[in-house]
UniProtKB/TrEMBL annotation:
The lineage of its organism: Eukaryota, Viridiplantae, Streptophyta, Embryophyta, Tracheophyta. Pfam families: Lipase_GDSL. It comes from the Eukaryota. It comes from Pyrus ussuriensis x Pyrus communis. One of its GO terms (molecular function) is hydrolase activity, acting on ester bonds. Signal peptide: none annotated. The keyword Nucleus does not apply. Belongs to the 'GDSL' lipolytic enzyme family. This is GDSL esterase/lipase.
Length: 257
């Protein structure tokens, strides 16, 4: 789209305020972040969450960075109303952390409405400040990724989609999250008809890659990671890509993962 790479918030924060170019946008995302606050998702500290910088904290950062522009609320609304706000993808780690910590799927399934509520609350807050165009991506087909294929390795053959090799029930879980999200977005749209809320259908876009990989240039086995520490799917939690024990394949562009 010809837009510049968007700089991360913690880097922009270190730039002299007068030198910041907020018009290029700021990236408030944090790798591993959850939609729910850590205290809420993991009160007992069982899940080994990747980071405490939840969506609520990211929204607070966003508001803090806008504050010089929000001296008069009309300035602030002008900036926000002419901006594209990319709200996510977020929420996947709220399921990844507990599932990889060994939590049961039945329990993790009950988190979905809370995750959607946390996303809705962030969206509503930004709308109150004047946001008028938001892109909200859903979750991707997590049943296709080597990490989950490894976690549930040895499942019954009937649990895998014969065409893609993905775990069907896990993809259905992404679909469930996405259905609740889409319902919530419709509710927000009807309360704020002047706001443009775009659902990002990452799920179906990515599923196409697994369904006809050659058409998109992916000639390596789609269930195996290019970079990893060995095993059936070349995914090893003890030797993640980039750390000792892992190595990369010759031509990364030919692998989806
Ligand atoms: C920011 O940069 C301007 C212009 O170079 C300078 O006058 C000002 O003192 C700097 N402010 C801080 C907080 O460093
Ligand atoms: C999250 O917060 C808790 C409590 O303040 C702290 O003990 C822990 O180290 C933090 N974890 C991360 C990954 O920041
Ligand atoms: C907003 O107010 C602060 C403090 O009163 C001031 O330093 C800043 O220059 C103002 N920003 C704008 C865009 O007017
Ligand atoms: C995973 O990585 C660890 C640490 O490098 C290694 O000891 C182990 O053999 C690996 N497991 C597999 C299945 O390759
Ligand atoms: C891809 O790799 C997986 C795991 O090794 C294997 O089960 C599957 O049969 C392979 N698929 C193809 C099309 O070779």
């Amino acid at each position: 789209m010809g837009l510049p790479l968007i700089r991360p918030y913690l880097e922009v924060l270190n730039v002299n305020e007068t030198m910041r170019n907020l018009e290029e946008g700021v990236n408030f995302a944090v790798v591993g972040a959850t939609a729910l606050d850590t205290d809420f998702l993991d009160p007992m500290g069982r899940y080994d969450v990747f980071t405490n910088f939840s969506l609520r904290i990211q929204v607070d950062w966003f508001k803090g960075m806008l504050s010089p522009l929000c001296n008069t609320s009309s300035d602030c609304r002008n900036v926000l109303s002419s901006s594209l706000i990319v709200m996510g993808p977020i929420g996947g780690n709220d399921y990844n952390c507990p599932l990889f910590a060994g939590e049961s799927f039945e329990i993790v399934e009950t988190y979905v409405p809370f995750v959607i509520e946390a996303m809705a609350s962030a969206i509503n807050e930004l709308i109150q400040h004047g946001a008028s165009t938001l892109l909200v991506p859903g979750n991707f087909p997590i049943g296709c990724i080597p990490a989950y294929l490894t976690l549930y390795e040895g499942s019954y053959e009937s649990e895998y989609d014969p065409l893609t090799g993905c775990l069907t029930w896990l993809n259905k879980f992404s679909e469930y999250h996405n259905e609740l999200l889409k319902t919530k977005l419709s509710q927000i749209r009807s309360l704020h008809p002047h706001v443009n809320i775009i659902y990002g259908d990452v799920y179906n876009a990515e599923l196409q890659l697994y369904q006809s990989p050659e058409q998109f240039g992916f000639t390596e086995n789609t269930s195996r990671a290019c970079c990893g520490g060995g095993g059936t799917y070349n995914y090893n939690l003890s030797a993640p890509c980039g750390l000792p024990g892992a190595s990369a394949c010759a031509n990364p562009a030919k692998s989806i993962n």
